[in-house]
Design brief:
Layout: E1 2-3, E2 12-13, E3 15-18, H1 22-30, E4 36-38, E5 52-55, E6 62-66, E7 71-75, H2 80-87, E8 92-93, H3 105-110, H4 118-121, E9 128-134, E10 140-143, H5 149-155, E11 164-171, E12 173-174, E13 179-187, H6 190-199, E14 205-210, E15 222-229, E16 243-244, H7 256-269, E17 273-280, H8 281-285, E18 291-292, E19 303-311, H9 312-329, E20 337-341, E21 355-363, H10 368-381, E22 385-386, H11 396-402, H12 406-415, H13 425-430
Parallel strand pairs: 3-5, 4-5, 16-18
Antiparallel strand pairs: 1-2, 6-7, 7-11, 8-12, 9-10, 9-11, 13-15, 13-17, 14-15, 14-20, 19-21, 19-22, 20-21
Helix pairs in contact: 9-10
């Protein structure tokens, strides 16, 4: 079967097999050949692509829930959407959620996903009490911050390269409604939005849409969005009609002029400030989930998301240089997102570090990868790194400079024989 990530690049012809029981999975792992786990296909690049993949979506049972502690026990193929549908009406929500609810729990752990509240609470795996992991011999081990700690730290953010996650015990958070109190602030440039992040650092959720083609004194102009859970309101998530992109848009539709026009309209459509308005939770956390197959907007060749993080000390300088280069090249995106990160964790390949993260979507075209190589040099010079879950083209050197604990990760894989079984297009390219 042909498989791809959410960026639809590259497309891989793969042998795919699913599993519904631990025995099914063990038999698959004991057969010769290397493979990688594949969930719902929402990682953007090639981290879940290989000639052979094992599909976990049918391993999707909710095993148990303790309403006294908020601990949920579920299998790795359960999606965040399925958790929300069951537990939000009961007054429980995910402690950390990325920008889509369609990923699996196993994928959330493997990517160590973050959300709009990283500056306050950290990554998804901070709320993982334990998980089961099956390795090359078909046997299961239990991992937690206190048990098999090194394997826990390698698996959280390890992109499926340490084994197949079986089940996860996750701590949910209690909430009172399915609504968010949102404040919008229009910021004229990068300095204003960075100041806004810092001024509102105690606000639970913060994110900014950023105009990546603005120039001069307007570089980094943004709409800052702040939010907190509302004390009252409906308990179920609102289900707006999903509008679907019916076909691939022609490549010429997305160019510097159409993106610049959209960005100008979007920025000016927002008032200077909107204070504490009540919005449905899905609109705040998952705006793009309301557009089916939105990845088709980038055309048949697909796209890549370039997500970087820079430490605070060099963040402003690096962001200005990167945004200026993007504007000059005319390769901008209308899906630019800027967030504030808190301290990094102990996981070996976790992406966040204390500073600022910028994510931009670029359609695949001839000059793109050479241009992104230029941006890589800026990121590394500033002491930053790129997100493995979004990556489809960074070099081995860029990876190793950005992830100083890569050697510990690779040595663990070799020592346990994991490199002989678990491999992806990304791990081969980066030689992890």
């Amino acid at each position: 079967m042909k498989i791809t990530g959410w960026g639809r690049y590259p497309v891989v012809e793969a042998e795919a097999e699913g599993f519904e029981t631990r025995r099914d999975l063990a038999e698959a792992l004991l057969r010769p050949g290397r493979l990688i786990p594949y969930g719902s296909g929402r990682s953007y690049g090639d981290s879940a692509l290989a000639d052979r993949v094992v599909l976990n979506r049918r391993f999707d049972k909710l095993r148990g829930f303790d309403p006294r502690t908020g601990l949920l026990h579920c299998e790795s193929g359960v999606t965040l959407e399925e958790i929300i549908a069951v537990f939000l009406p009961r007054g429980w929500f995910l402690p950390v959620t990325p920008g889509t609810r369609f990923i699996t729990v196993g994928g959330a752990v493997a990517s160590d996903v973050h959300g709009k509240n990283h500056h306050k609470v950290g990554c998804f795996t901070r709320f993982v009490e334990e998980f089961g992991l099956m390795g090359v011999d078909g046997n299961e081990i239990r991992c937690s911050p206190a048990q098999n700690t090194r394997m826990f730290q390698a698996t959280c953010g390890g992109m499926g390269l340490t084994g197949v996650i079986l089940d996860v015990v996750l701590r949910l958070q209690p909430i009172q409604s399915a609504c968010i109190r949102e404040t919008l602030i229009r910021c004229r440039n990068l300095d204003e939005v960075l100041e806004g992040f810092e001024r509102h650092a105690e606000t639970p959720y913060s994110v900014a849409w950023i105009d990546c083609l603005a120039r001069g004194r307007k570089v980094g102009r943004s709409v800052l969005m702040l939010g907190d859970h509302a004390a009252a309101g409906r308990r179920s998530m609102r289900r707006d009609p999903v509008r679907t992109v019916p076909a691939d848009l022609p490549g010429f539709c997305l160019n510097r002029y159409s993106v610049a026009l959209f960005n100008r309209i979007y920025y000016n459509a927002h008032p200077q400030r909107v204070e504490g308005r009540l919005v449905p939770m899905d609109r705040f956390f998952y705006p793009l989930d309301r557009i089916g197959d939105w990845n088709r907007m980038y055309g048949q060749k697909g796209f890549t998301q370039y997500q970087l993080v820079l430490p605070k000390a060099s963040g402003r300088r690096g962001l200005i240089e990167i945004l200026t280069r993007i504007s000059e090249a005319g390769l901008g995106s209308f899906l630019g997102v800027l967030k504030l990160f808190g301290p990094e964790n102990d996981n070996l390949l976790s992406f966040p570090m204390e500073g600022y993260t910028l994510a931009l979507d670029f359609k695949i075209e001839k000059r793109l990868f050479a241009f992104l190589d230029e941006l890589d040099r800026v990121v590394l010079d500033c002491g930053g790194r790129l997100y493995l879950t979004k990556d489809v083209r960074m070099s081995k050197e860029t990876f190793r400079r950005g992830y100083p604990r890569w050697r510990q990760f690779s040595e663990l894989r070799r020592r346990l024989g994991l490199d002989a079984k678990f491999s992806s297009r990304q791990s081969e390219r980066l030689r992890i």
